[in-house]
Amino acid sequence: MDRLRDKIFPVTAILAGLVVVWYVAAVLMNAPFQRDLNQRGGVTVTTSEFIGQTLSQPKPTVPAPHQVVSNVFENTFLRKITSNRSLVYHSWVTLSSTVLGFAFGTALGILIAVGIVHIKALDRSLMPWIIASQTIPILAIAPMIIVVLAAVNVTGLIPKAMISTYLSFFPVAVGMVKGLRSPEIMHLDLMHTYNATRAQIFWKLRVPASVPFLFASMKVAVAASLVGAIVGELPTGAVAGIGSKLLAGAYYSQTIDMWAALVAGSVVAVILVSLVGLAGRLVERGMGARPA
Amino acid sequence: MTAPVVSASGLSLTFQTNDGPVNALSDVGLTIGKGEFVSFIGPSGCGKTTFLRVIADLERPTAGTILVNGLTPQQAREKRAYGYVFQAAALFPWRTIEKNVALPLEIMGISPAERQERVRRTLDLVNLSGFEKKYPWQLSGGMQQRASIARALAFDADLLLMDEPFGALDEIVRDHLNRQLLELWARTDKTICFVTHSIPEAVYLSTRIVVMSPRPGRVTDVIESTLPRERPLDIRETPEFLEIAHRVREGLRAGHSYED
User: Fold this and answer.
1) ipTM of the complex model
2) Domain shared by B76 and B200, yes or no
3) Which of A172, A223, B80, B118 has CA 20 to 30 A from B9's CA?
4) Separation between Cα atoms, residue B259 and residue A148, nearest integer Å
């Protein structure tokens, strides 16, 4: 009962509100085109018929929620997974380069953080470069990465994953620098009294202390990886993936397809972020964290 | 007469801060023999913790000499000559109690079998048997501090350095732990250096009380306790106890510790 009142009701209320706003926006945005069309065709319709028309255009400016839902449903459940029109297929293509890039990015971010924490020269010099790397628009360098890698015969999954890596190492590096430096002075003093080596301090103190920071930054990184993978598919003429679906939709004004691809992208994002969150909770429980 | 465990002479330490130099220790001379229980008492800023940290090689003196077991503090630390108990329990939250106590043993490369045996023995010593698998947050503050004492005892160092270990605990728990600490000291024959700002605690525990005063941090009095080694809690109501407490208070007053 409490759960119904505290969670389900507010969530449903907000959702319903959003759907209403969406429908109103769809009618308003699609109205000018429909009015134009009806005028030229010499058709007169009642207001309710007119609203019905604005919500069922084949290429609407803003597709109505039910159009997007039926498109997503059709392309997710009614097509063979191997089909070029299946959203599952396209999501899978994007997901695989996201996961690969995320794995690279996390590894790279951790490596950079370890370097920054342990080597004074890196501590002083590396951060400005890392920050600068993130101020470059990814759309500008994505084609360059693809072209350069294609020149050395690296094509397919890896170049797209590199773009995900480029976006995802940053939050991990920043989070892990913070995490590896998070042990209290008292804990460091304690290790000093045991005459512990730097490696022992690292593995027995810094690494376990950094785990909550790692998972928090991995949540940001996995979302960034997905953005990277989608962006990586846009300028490269990729034939599959959520990005290519967006691009094709834009090219042929298939707005419903575009919105469906966006929905697929956000579903993938939700799944990825939840999985990282779940992994984080499991690891922290395994490390004896007090249950929240 | 065996060699002293700690011998300091002319020891000074000046911290450079943004507000200018601070004389944390000024010309401190002290010798601590084996098996003694020495308390350091004084108001904050008197250098009692700093002195303990110098023994532990957590701070380097700016002048004077100090030897721990006849070695420099650094050599003594490298030989793991002492166990250090901090003001807070400072247990690793991701380790169970037994793993926390095993931490120094892991670092010192002691075999798992031997580790297990020593953890069992030291947890028994601080009456924490049965709590091996608990995480620190599942224990009370007093139990956590006992676990941290077990950790300091686990590798059998002869010298125990304790920096206000019971300062954050309530008085009832503190009484209980004081008595347990005395029992432990009697059973293990360790040398204990104990920093406190509680006069009753210092008098109850110590064979010798070092009274310190601030600005600059220095030793103003050293009081030998005349109490027997066997000390029930109600010894604190005897005239002898009160007499020593009075002398400590006098020492603090002589060091201007009661002035603003």
Assistant:
1) 0.90
2) yes
3) B80
4) 75
Q: Do A208 and B94 touch (CB under 8 A)?
A: yes
Taking CA atoms, B223 is separated from A286, B37, B227, B245, B248, in Å, by 51, 12, 12, 10, 7
Preceding amide of B216 cis, omega within 30: yes
**B92: chain A residues, CB-CB within 8 Å:** 187, 204-205, 208
> Cα–Cα distance between A259 and A50 in angstroms, integer?
23
Which class for A198: exposed (0-12), middle (13-18), buried (19 or more C-beta within 10 A)?
Answer: exposed
pLDDT in tens, B65-87: 999 998 999 999 999 999 999 99
The reported pTM is 0.84
With respect to residue B205, please indicate whether it lies within any of the assigned structural domains.
yes
Tell me, yes or no, whether B76 and B145 share the same domain.
Answer: no
Spatial distance between the Cα atoms of A292 and A287, rounded to a whole number of angstroms: 14
Q: Chain A partners of B71 at a C-beta cutoff of 8 Å? A: none
Number of domains in chain B: 2
Together in a domain, B75 and B182: yes
Last residue of a domain, one of B135, B156, B177: B156
| B250 is a domain residue | yes
Q: Which domain holds residue B25?
A: 1-81+159-260
Residues B174 and B66 in one domain: yes
Amino acid at A97: S
Residue B168's contacts (CB-CB under 8 Å, 6 or more residues apart) are: B87, B88, B141
**Domain end residue (candidates: B111, B128, B156):** B156
